[in-house]
Design brief:
- The complex is a heterodimer.
- Chain A contains 16 helices and four strands.
- By secondary structure, chain A is an alpha+beta fold.
- In chain A, strands 1-2-3-4 form a four-stranded antiparallel beta sheet.
- In chain A, helix 2 packs across helix 4 and helix 3 packs across helix 4.
- The longest helix of chain B is centred in the C-terminal third of the chain and has 20 residues.
- A seven-stranded mixed beta sheet of chain B has the order 1-9-8-5-4-2-3. In chain B, strands 7-6-10 form a three-stranded antiparallel beta sheet.
- Classes of the chains: A alpha+beta, B alpha/beta.
- At the A-B interface, helix 1, helix 5, helix 13, helix 14 and helix 16 of A face helix 3, helix 5 and strand 11 of B.
Chain lengths: 425, 302
């Protein structure tokens, strides 16, 4: 009877103390510092910044520490903090083609102007647990850091970054093979999802904002689904870049844009086939993904989903949930999803009591009806069982026939809706 | 059980809320919410979209109600928070302490003392007055969402007052079960125009919404909608002429206060499944027992 017990206030306070203790863990071990998390768990920090939609490595690291490593909880902490911050204005669009790339790859061309740069990646590690890391102390491998090699690496990265790096998708433009992202004349300013409620239909700018804040796991699963045939569009990783880019903002006092800092970003441009329509010849189209820090999985999944959500704009047939803007955008946010799923922990006993009363009533009715109609068949229990089995078989056959006569895939929801509409009509 | 918790020490909140605005939200956000509230009051039952913020409590745990309360509460207000009718459930305690901490307002467990009552899943048994505001926490403000999950579609249906879908649903209930099988979040027509969700209150509470002297505000944080029922507004629970709307009835009286006029919770009190029925509204139950004790004392002294 946890809801009926008294002293909820003291219980909550005690729970906070326990939580603190559990988070700290064994006090014989040194406490983890925020600086360590920031420096050594950089990928976790990147995810929390992206989905928390605040670029602040220190606060993200603090949130991870406070949440004991639960990244969705850390994202929530950061978002709840973000919402209290004043809004000074909006920066200029990032010039990502001027990125100082630490990594840049294209899966569509063997060589591209500006070169391919592998950079730090887990891609070609052999996933063997490195037991050397188990040993205590820094640099467990024992070898002193090879300064010359590191310097050489850094130097290489810089030369590469210094070369101009035109976008891979722009290279295809010479032949008109791929649609180009261009600013629509008289386009309205993009909305701000953190200040305005999400409304449908949603513009691409709004959709991208939603996906950028969206849960990596959700986008990964949905992007994966598009690869497995749920709105397949033959994607190629046109270009993936990770590096730092300058942020510029126009200041009223100066009347011009000035650099206010650099941020690390990961950008992905997916190239997807487009079969063409009555108006447009077959060509390649784009899906776009952007994330803070080094977040390739997120950026790629986002690009796949972005492309799937462009179905309506491109005149493609809508046949999968991954193309359904309302379905996708309404369920991508993990702060919302986590809150609502877990609100089931709250007491619902008033509603449950109401349902209990209803089910008892319905069961009483059912029993009364069975008693009235079942006296004849009750003579032989076996006969009754056989009858039940037979009717179950026929129901199954009927269901099979129905699904056979309905070859459309993935439209269970559509069927239910149209059935409901028919009934309404 | 259903007695006020008197042992809790008065907490010192002032230091904890430093650096935050009164009632947590910044004034700009409060103004935005107040504009939505005014529109909602002007068009009773209509769902007004608003830019709900992330709150320091999770979505789905009352953030809509909290934002509405935060934007209407003043320093002189007295706040009561209930969840499932009780002031003592952990979430009610948590929200109450949130406001005590961020707004420093007086809180109460007595319905009659409160100027604002924030609630989840119940309307207090004690009748409200025109000096009070009832703020509901709403998980899903759209009464049609089980029938039409697309917001773009359901907004059209509201605009056209095309509520055939829900009538068909209730009709199907009657065909399948012999009666309407909706027991909570029972849909209502507000001011003879908009179909609205009363939030998941038991249908037992629905009649209390009709012509209530108090202002009723509904906040759905996750779904980013606000709707309202202004004082003295007609609210009709959907039904059919031959299947009129009915509320739940119990064969029991409250085991503590003996009331037969309140919503009762069922509790399992031992391993063999023995049951006990008590008022869901803890303040109502407590007040009645105080009165009875008072009457007994007076009787003894007379």
């Amino acid at each position: 009877m946890y809801v009926a017990v008294k002293g909820g206030e003291r219980a909550i306070e005690a729970s906070w103390r326990l939580l603190d203790k559990e988070r700290r863990g064994d006090t014989h071990l040194a406490e983890l510092s925020v600086a360590q998390i920031r420096a050594q768990l950089r990928l976790a920090v990147a995810r929390v910044m992206t989905e928390g939609s605040v670029y602040d490595e220190e606060l993200a690291a603090l949130a991870i520490k406070q949440a004991a490593g639960d990244l969705v909880e850390a994202i929530f902490l950061l978002r709840a903090y973000r919402t209290t911050l004043p809004r000074f204005g909006y920066t200029e669009p990032l010039k990502t083609e001027a990125i100082h790339a630490e990594r840049r790859i294209s899966a569509t061309f063997k060589d591209v102007p500006g070169g391919q740069l592998l950079g730090p990646t887990y891609d070609y590690t052999q996933r063997l647990l490195d037991f050397a890391l188990l040993a205590d102390g820094d640099d467990a491998h024992g070898a002193p850091p090879d300064h010359a090699a590191t310097a050489q690496l850094a130097g290489k990265a810089q030369t590469a970054a210094a070369e101009p790096m035109p976008r891979v998708v722009a290279l295809l433009n010479k032949e008109g093979l791929i649609e180009q992202e261009s600013i629509t004349p008289d386009a309205p300013e993009p909305g701000d999802l953190s200040r305005e409620p999400l409304a449908f239909p949603a513009s691409r700018a709004t959709r991208l904002q939603n996906l950028a804040r969206g849960d990596e796991g959700f986008l990964l699963a949905m992007g994966y689904a598009t690869q497995r045939g749920y709105a397949h569009s033959h994607p190629f990783a046109g270009e993936i870049r990770f590096g730092s880019v300058a942020v510029e903002m126009e200041l009223d006092e100066l009347g011009e844009a000035v650099e206010i800092g650099d941020i690390d970003i990961t950008e992905c441009q997916m190239i997807n086939q487009f079969a063409g329509s009555a108006e447009a010849p077959p060509s390649f189209t784009q899906g776009y993904g952007l994330a803070f820090g080094h977040s390739e999985r997120k950026a790629m999944a986002m690009a796949l989903v972005d492309r799937a959500l462009r179905a309506e704009e491109l005149g493609e047939t809508l046949r999968s949930p991954t193309q359904d803007v309302e379905f996708m955008l309404s369920h991508s946010d993990n702060v919302e999803a986590s809150g609502f799923v877990q609100h089931l922990k709250l007491p619902h006993y008033v509603d449950f009591q109401s349902e209990l009363e209803l089910v008892r009533k319905l069961r009483a009715k059912h029993a009364a009806a069975a008693a009235a109609g079942g006296t004849a068949s009750a003579a032989s229990a076996n006969a009754h069982d056989e009858h039940a089995a037979a009717s179950a078989r026929s129901a199954a056959q009927q269901a099979e026939r129905q699904s056979a006569s309905n070859p459309g895939e993935n439209n269970a929801e559509g069927n239910a809706t149209s059935a409901a509409q028919e009934q309404a009509a | 059980m259903n007695a006020r918790d008197t042992a809790a020490p008065a907490p010192d909140y002032d230091s904890a809320a430093e650096g935050y605005n009164f009632a947590y939200l910044d004034e700009q956000t409060k103004r935005m919410i107040r504009r939505a509230l005014l529109k909602a009051v002007a068009v009773p039952g209509y769902q007004v979209p608003f830019a709900a913020r992330e709150m320091p409590l999770p979505f789905g745990w009352g953030t809509g109600g909290i934002q509405v309360t935060a934007s209407i509460i003043g320093r002189d207000d007295t706040l009561k928070v209930i969840d499932q009718g009780s002031d003592e459930t952990t979430n009610a305690v948590n929200i109450r302490r949130f406001f005590a901490r961020t707004a420093g307002v007086k809180t109460t467990r007595r319905t009659v003392e409160a100027s604002i009552v924030q609630t989840r899943h119940r309307i207090p048994e004690t009748p409200l007055t025109d000096q009070q505001i009832l703020v509901y926490q709403v998980p899903n403000p759209e009464p049609l969402y089980r029938l039409e999950p697309r917001v773009a579609e359901s907004r059209k249906l509201h605009a056209l007052a095309d509520y055939g879908l829900i009538s068909v649903k209730l009709y199907e209930d009657i065909v399948h079960h012999g009666s309407i099988a909706t027991t909570y979040d029972y849909p209502v027509i507000v001011n003879n125009r908009y179909l609205a969700s009363p939030s998941p209150i038991p249908k037992y509470d629905n009649p209390k919404m009709h012509m209530n002297p108090a202002l009723q505000l509904f906040g759905a944080g996750r779904e980013r909608r606000i709707h309202a029922i202004p004082p003295y507004t007609p609210v009709r629970s959907l039904d059919f002429d031959d299947h009129p709307f009915e509320v739940q009835r119990w064969d029991h009286a409250c085991a503590l206060c003996g009331s037969t006029q309140s919503f009762l919770d069922e509790m399992i009190v031992d391993d063999s499944g023995k049951r006990m029925f008590v008022c869901s509204d803890s303040d109502y139950c407590h007040e009645r027992r105080e009165q009875q004790a008072g009457a007994n004392d007076a009787g003894e002294h007379a």
